[in-house]
Amino acid sequence: MAQLKEQTKTVLVRLPAEVKAWIANEARRTLASQNSEIVRCIRARMDAEPSPKAALTATPFLDQGHTSGAED
Predict the structure, then answer these.
(1) In angstroms, rounded to a whole number, what is the distance separating the alpha carbons of residues 70 and 60?
(2) CA nearest 38: which of 12, 63, 64, 61?
């Protein structure tokens, strides 16, 4: 347990009532804790984000020959 505490940080989060209710329902449905449901949702969002390396190598829209619409 002490090792787990060293690897985690505590955060107080204020949630809208409907979000809290959804988390509680999901936790009951999946037989998990509400904390693990919150972590699962955040990790899913993290996985959906492009990697920082991909963001650095992506060509921005304006570099593809497009202009912002303003004439020089």
Answers:
(1) 17
(2) 12
